[in-house]
Description:
Strand content of chain A: 15-25%
Largest sheet of chain A: 6 strands, antiparallel
Radius of gyration of chain A: 19 Å
Oligomer: homodimer
Number of strands of chain A: 8
Number of helices of chain A: 8
Largest interface: A-B, 18 and 18 residues
Strand order of the largest sheet of chain A: 3-8-4-5-6-7
Bound molecules: manganese (II) ion
Shape of chain A: globular
CATH architecture of the domain at 145-219 in chain A: Roll
CATH class of the domain at 145-219 in chain A: Mainly Beta
Structural class of chain A: alpha+beta
Amino acid sequence: MDLTTAEENYLKAIYHLSDGGKKSVATNDIAAEMKNKPASVSDMLRKLGEKEVIEYRKYYGLQMTESGKRFALQTIRKHRLWEVFLVEKLNFAWDEVHEVAEQLEHINSALLIQRLDSYLNYPKFDPHGDPIPDEFGDVRARPRVHLNEMEINQTGQIVAVKDSSAAFLRYLDKVGAYIGARIKVLDKVEFDGSLEILVDQKKTLFMSKDVAGNILVQQS
Amino acid sequence: MDLTTAEENYLKAIYHLSDGGKKSVATNDIAAEMKNKPASVSDMLRKLGEKEVIEYRKYYGLQMTESGKRFALQTIRKHRLWEVFLVEKLNFAWDEVHEVAEQLEHINSALLIQRLDSYLNYPKFDPHGDPIPDEFGDVRARPRVHLNEMEINQTGQIVAVKDSSAAFLRYLDKVGAYIGARIKVLDKVEFDGSLEILVDQKKTLFMSKDVAGNILVQQS
DNA sequence: ATTTATTTTTAGCTATATCTAAAATAATTT
DNA sequence: AAATTATTTTAGATATAGCTAAAAATAAAT
Ligand SMILES: [Mn+2]
Ligand SMILES: [Mn+2]
Ligand SMILES: [Mn+2]
Ligand SMILES: [Mn+2]
């Protein structure tokens, strides 16, 4: 069975919103994520139900099927492999890759992805620190905490960002934060939850609770 | 103005069938090339006419506009650059690339193509020996030689015949040579100038100097 | 338990891109 | 010149994927 580009995009959105197929997802939330209208989502859910990639009971929400999760992970795998390609081989900045990967992820060729994976040396994480599922859909996730939840003097390494909008990524670039940076929490302001962070043992920066909430850290 | 994937594919087909926009093209021939029906072509021609990438007078044929030629060359450029990428970087065989390039050529990102071109070291020809238009649509046409003038081990693609009599064409058909065939000169006989030719990397055939003198090859 | 508000679905419309069958036009043959 | 054949276009379907507006179902508030 084959999925259309639109169906692949919906499945990917549902996969993310449902936390890997665990939770049910609201029609309105899918519409917001996809930037289209709830009526369009309802119609698509009916179609995805017919293709048995979700189990859909109208008005009562949906569950991803095993088949649906596999499809979603396959698309996510392709998206992230292309992101690695764009950054590592074509010198894209990490905030320039998303739009293009959003298109490339729909190219349909098993051989292509196999060869791309090999060419990139079987990377395990994309430029935003997100794990790349293997060809069977298995993901090696590393435990992460949100930076705003860390305590004073705790240390770790930035491994991912929740918001990968160009604006946010450019901001991080500007202040000198990046995936892989070693950080230490120097201070937390009680009043607004903002933090003072030491980056790579040399640069100090201040960030709001909001910003820190979008940064994921692997503690050490 | 933006073109859909279908429109890009039609323009590309028209460009090739019209010999670079020089000749008019028949609806039936476009349908054959695109593997769809003449009725579908008529409808698309109307749409392409409205977008002014062709000048279309119904029942009387079409002419590509300058704008149309630019669009076609842009798509051809992308197709051929991706083919080079697949062969040079991902180790695809030259006969495995077409289907994938047919998809990749529709990815829409000026930066991507710019970077890809640079990454591949600004190649001038694709793996099939076809020239890659530059970003302005300029093509460096490869000079043609008569097959009887080629040296041992040289390779190329049959692009034309000087003698287009039925007899000659029937002969070419019979021995398995055709416009577009990739050939390699395996041997040349000093005595009479006859040649041993490898066609499409599989079939060997012998031909006289006379016959070879009527075949034009684009070297690669 | 009603009423009100929110969420979700359906109905009906638009646009793209294909198809088949029929009609219109052009080209060829008699 | 008329008839026949071939080519091309139009008319009317179907499928995908979006929309708005209205209806239906569920959830929340009084
Ligand atoms: Mn996408
Ligand atoms: Mn990513
Ligand atoms: Mn194509
Ligand atoms: Mn080619």
